[in-house]
Design brief:
The structure is a homodimer. Chain A is α/β, with parallel strands linked by helices. The first copy, chain A, folds into three domains: 272 residues, Aminopeptidase (3-Layer(aba) Sandwich); 226 residues, Glucose Oxidase, domain 1; 178 residues, Transferrin receptor-like, dimerisation domain (Transcription Elongation Factor S-II, Chain A, Up-down Bundle), CATH 1.20.930.40. Chain A is 41% helix and 16% strand. The first copy, chain A, contains 23 helices and 17 strands. In chain A, the strands form four sheets. In chain A, strands 1, 2, 4, 10, 11, 12, 13, 14 and 15 form a nine-stranded mixed beta sheet that branches. The first copy, chain A, has a four-stranded parallel beta sheet with strand order 5-6-7-9, with helices on both faces. In chain A, helix 2 packs antiparallel against helix 17, helix 18 runs parallel beside helix 22 and helix 21 packs antiparallel against helix 23. The longest helix of chain A is centred in the last third of the chain and has 34 residues. Chain A is globular, with a radius of gyration of 27 Å. The first copy, chain A, starts with a helix and ends in a 5-residue tail after the last helix. At the A-B interface, helix 13, helix 14, helix 18 and helix 19 of A face helix 14, helix 15, helix 19 and helix 20 of B.
């Protein structure tokens, strides 16, 4: 008996190994697919990434530059050579560039900010002065202001609450904020809301300078004159060309007048280095900054105001520039009208090696090998659309204008959008639509980490366990499933996911290639190949990961959609919101009681000017039941569908097509045409960038931001909106189930 | 009816107000006592504190200095003038002072450390060079070493675990550690245990320099050349004169040979300023220091080793010096052999205004007014013993030698020991024996905060609520009871509490007078009166607090001992230990599994040299039942006694005396003559300084350190020891109960 058992187990194991499954593929197609993936891996070549990065980063290649156009042409030609139907998609967008930049400290110890990043002999492209965009924030207002300076930490709303308690106003002042803690555009927006007339943003050495690690060229971190450029457009309202919200910025598009555009900053904004920030911060008197506000400069951080005034003068050329997206299609043989879209931007702020070329060259190599395989007989059911976006840095211009311009076609045809951007050594990071979570986990099992030889999923898990905090360890122990993060803002998925409701993923490796080159002249080939991904091994790993994602989506018999993952995740969000509301209530009650009991008055140091906060309105109980009932219904239906999902691979082609239509259209059900409160461009009811965080995602944003901003009616109304959205979604799930359900007769 | 009710309530309220109770006093005596306390408050005079501080801090007054002896004489004369029987108690103690101090960085960028604190024109005593002790660490070894340098963060055991993971050894190296995170003597001790041959300790500007606030003389924080002097004697083994452990260092005491003394450091140790530390830290290469290790200097913190070597040469005069304690007694009229002891040290490292004179002058004013009141008819039942200790800075020398020298008498007579040390603006802080918790809370209700007019208890509560974290807020909400902290090391209570088992309290205000003058030439009258307690209002508040404590203990009919507070606190400690053991087990299991699963190997960055930790032995389950049963018995008996406690005030004088003897002797029951494992001097089974933390207390230390150091047998053995201790203690509680219990017939 024992011997027999052993043999039986052995046979079973072997047969399991042989019958390797891929989600959405029948057995025969899975085997075929896996064979092609093996060939795909074998043909990827790191030398191509290296050569292309050298070419693409050899000169500054920002939106509107000669080199930017040359790069687009270069890539388009390559795509063509690999068999893609390729075009340049041009749009005409507002892109201000600086004419005047003056920042000076007046008074007894005057200082004129240098606003220049010096060339380094160790970095061969850092000296291309005439082609470089100067350091500035795009979509700052023109302005010439002179005022006292106030330090506002990260410049987010909570910092102004703290300033108020200190009795410090920024009204009529220029503020200086540290980079980080929010999308940079939040800082001048909130400063303006509080009455400031100018905004300076600097890179504190604690964040990505010498306190984070050795500075360039000794190490990867920001040297003292390094500056982070960047857009300060109010993207949480809408991204893309400021003059053409919701429509493509074609030559003859109807354009807003500049003075009517809400996404342009109202005050002048300028980014500076920490060397330029030092004398400004030294000029501040007033209270010592709270402990959490202090950075890594050798001084006592004060809040201000400054004894001496600061003069900030900025003027811009408000030009319309042409951007060039590269759009390369490889048509599907069976389902040419189902599109799997892949994108990475190609424009940089200067030479942009890490951001964005590291991701771009990875996408190109992936496209090249797929193209070559198709030439050798690899069949794609669905159409692949490879894109290289322009004007991402200014506010996702290229991708947004293209998505807006093709919205009708995309609504019909787009199955998914797969995004990448900068890439470096380390661990796989992934965010996106939660219907794709089990699908992506299969891929993460299949791609091996180049440094350790274990799967990228195993390595990510090891990192979370070893470097995570105690709570993370305890939560994850043994659970290697990759939980997708929710997507806010930050790269080119917004037009697809949040405007059109196309299921999206964003992929990239990182964690071992940190540095301080971001948006500076030092984000170069030299920097990248020394510190980020020498040998481009993680570039290849990204090609393998994204390439599999594209090919499996293109060839799945049944699209790999999982409604239970979606249900569980959204249900967790609902739980979070209820907890948030309860905690807000408890904290409000506590704080109001403390105010009434005069605890703030009694606790305060009479030598400091702290004010007691004002009592807040009480937090009502909201009715979540409507949403909870819809979620319960979704749960039942999602579970039923998923139980029957595998049946789909056995259906007829016609039935499969019908089923797949539902499966990729289902994300559209999460779109509400009216959009979110105060920002109708954002239509997705589950994922949006935070109105006051920018990069940071707000899930179920209509409800969440209502609670966070204490707009109880808005929160309650949006519970209904989301409940109705979930109902429509569940109806789609039911329709899908009816197709995969075995008929009784 | 309504009217009647109202009158009734009014009458009741008035009678409650009239019948104000003090714990341990019958009604008549309470009234008398409160009247005297009113007079006491009225006579306290801040000008005295100011004048005495000016005198006592006018020159450096360290152990062995001319000014130290002059101060002792000055105070003795004052105590005599207030009616106290006063003597100077001399002891002869080992006190090394520096002969040679050299610290230099060799190699291509040589630097010779200045090791000098410059005079400031804004500080009139800072330039008394000839009288100042140079900056050094007392009880450092002599030595002349040259080696590479390694940065070890705070230099505690956990830091060496991290160094091991980085693959960095300190064997044969000189280490440089930041001040803070432990008592300073731990740093060279642990460095030596790991094979280092020298130790440098510096004050990082993040901790008490410019990153904490404006530096002296603009603000209170440590200027760039400010140095923290201090002892590095291995006090967690035993404090006091290194040559005479356990006995008074009288002229003819038997002394150890210096080479046999275990509390002297084995390697040379030197404290330096952050200006002197900068070039040393800049010389370090090797891995970038972990984020939590980095400080406020403008450089990238590296772990080392340094490229260039460091030369450290130290020689000391190993002299026996005479110390002078001032001992001033005011004999009790009824119970002269029951002593309430009060102490503050009088020696400073240099001019020592905050540390210790701010507390000393508060004690003096308290003693003066009590003395004057006695002259006017105030009767003290018990004897007050006011002490001014010498040689505290070197290792609690004066208080320890006196306690050891008088151990038999103190064991019989000492009711309690009340300690103070430096004092400043802010909030009452109190630690000590938990039997005294309700007693102290009554006092904290009675003393008003000078800045806000609410009680010091209310203000402390307000501060904890406003500035505490969320968990603290939620825990405390509405509960104003002051929880005494447990006493570890740090000032002169050790000889009384931990060696002899005398119930102790340590009192002081703080939290609004932070600075960086500690143990430097800048701890001066000028600094104190600008930044710490201008006008000495908190000095007076301390006199009120400690004075009440002394007078109530002196005159209580029944000593204000509360066994239920003791029970609850110790029971919480037992719970903590069980949790600690369980958490250690879970963490060990988790980490061992992670090691076996090779997660550390997979997660590590191959470009960095991190080592996987080694698996640890599994954590056994320990038998706590013996102790838990004894605790249960204590609970019942403590509750019974406390129910009957008030009866005590109605007993005959003879019965009261019998009861009081039990009540103050009960703390002796917590003493185990064998002492703690590896340090027999520390005999208290509930409170001890941590063997590897120093200042930081370890409660139930025999068990706790057994668990922390994974010595499971020691932990189990000590559960029995503590259980037996609690049994003996409970028997004393029972004896006390039998006295207050109404007889059945």
């Amino acid at each position: 008996m024992r011997r027999f058992q052993f043999v039986f187990i052995l046979v079973l194991s072997v047969s399991i190994i042989n019958a390797q499954k891929i989600m959405g593929f029948n057995e025969a197609n899975a085997k075929l697919q896996l064979d092609w993936e093996k060939q795909f891996d074998a043909q990827l070549n790191a030398k191509n990434l290296d050569l292309w990065m050298q070419f693409l980063t050899s000169h500054p290649h920002h939106l509107g530059s000669t080199k930017g156009k040359a790069n687009a042409d270069y890539m388009a030609n390559l795509f063509r050579s690999w068999g893609y139907q390729t075009e340049l998609a041009e749009y005409h967008v507002l892109f201000p560039t600086p004419k005047t930049r003056v920042l000076e400290l007046l008074g007894s110890k005057p200082y004129k900010a240098k606003l220049e990043e010096p060339a380094l002999k160790e970095d061969k492209t850092s000296g291309q002065k005439s082609e470089q965009l100067p350091s500035y924030n795009a979509y700052s207002a023109d302005g010439d202001v002179t005022a006292e300076l106030v330090f506002v930490n990260r410049g987010i709303p909570a910092d102004y609450d703290e300033l108020e308690r200190m009795g410090i106003s920024v009204k009529g002042k220029i503020v200086i904020a540290k980079y980080g803690g929010s999308w940079r555009g939040i800082k001048p927006k909130v400063a303006y809301e509080h009455g400031a007339i100018g905004c300076i943003i600097y890179s504190d050495p604690e964040d990505d300078g010498y306190r984070a690690g050795d500075v360039y060229p000794e190490g990867p971190y920001r040297p003292k004159f390094g500056v982070q450029r960047g857009s300060v457009m109010d993207m949480p309202v809408y991204p893309g060309d400021p003059l053409t919200p919701g429509v493509g910025a074609t030559k003859d598009a109807k354009r807003l007048k500049r003075e009517d555009v809400v996404t342009l900053m109202k005050i002048p904004v300028l980014p500076i280095s920490y060397e330029d920030a030092l004398p400004l911060l030294q000029s501040l008197s007033g209270p010592v900054a709270p402990a959490a506000w202090r950075g890594g400069l050798p001084l006592t951080y004060h809040v201000g105001p400054s004894k001496d005034k600061v003069h900030l003068k900025l003027e811009f050329n408000w030009d319309i520039k042409t951007l060039y997206n590269v759009i390369a299609k490889l048509p599907g043989t069976e389902l040419p009208d189902e599109w799997i879209i892949r994108g990475n931007h190609h424009d940089g702020w200067v030479n942009g090696a890490a951001d964005p070329i590291s991701g771009m060259v990875s996408e190109m190599e992936e496209a090249r090998v797929i193209g070559e395989m198709v030439k050798k007989g690899y069949k794609l059911k669905r159409t692949l659309v490879y894109c290289a976006w322009d004007g991402e840095e200014q506010g996702l211009l290229g991708s947004t204008e293209w998505a807006e311009d093709h919205k009708d076609e995309l609504r019909k045809k787009a199955v998914a959008y797969i995004n990448t951007d900068g890439n470096s050594r380390g661990f796989i990071g992934v965010g996106g639509s939660h219907t794709l979570e089990p699908f992506f986990n299969e891929i993460a099992d299949a791609v091996m980490d180049p440094q350790t030889g274990v799967s990228i999923k195993e390595r990510r898990y090891a990192n979370q366990m070893v470097n995570g905090d105690k709570a993370t360890r305890t939560r994850l122990m043994g659970n290697k499933n990759i939980k997708l993060s929710a997507l806010g803002a930050g790269s080119d998925w917004s037009g697809f996911l949040q405007f059109l409701g196309i299921a999206s993923l964003n992929l990239g490796f990182g964690g071992e290639g940190s540095g301080g080159e971001y948006h500076s002249v030092y984000d170069s080939y030299d920097h990248f190949t020394r510190f980020k991904d020498p040998g481009f091994q993680y570039g290849i790993a990204l090609s393998k990961t994204a390439g599999r994602t594209m090919m499996r989506l293109a060839n799945a018999d049944v699209l790999p959609i999982d409604f239970t993952s979606f249900y569980k995740t959204v249900n967790d969000y609902v739980g979070e919101l209820k907890t948030l509301l309860d905690n807000t209530r408890t904290e409000t009650e506590q704080e109001n009681k403390m105010i009434n009991d005069k605890l703030f008055d009694v606790a305060k140091d009479p030598k400091k000017g702290f004010q007691s906060p004002k009592p807040k309105d009480i937090v009502p109980y909201l009715n979540f039941s409507e949403l909870e009932n819809k979620m319960a219904e979704l749960k039942t239906n999602a579970e039923e569908f998923q139980k029957l999902y595998a049946n789909g691979t056995q259906l007829s082609a016609a039935k499969q097509k019908e089923l797949n239509q539902i499966l990729f259209q289902v994300e559209r059900a999460l779109i509400n045409d009216k959009g979110l409160p105060r920002r109708s461009w954002y239509k997705h009811q589950v994922y949006a960038p935070g109105f006051y965080t920018g990069y940071g995602v707000k899930t179920l944003p209509g409800i969440r931001e209502g609670i966070e901003e204490r707009n109880w009616k808005e929160a309650q109304d949006n519970i209904s909106v989301v409940a109705m959205t979930i109902e429509v979604y569940t109806n789609e799930v039911k329709r899908a189930t009816s197709i995969v359900k075995p008929k009784a007769f």
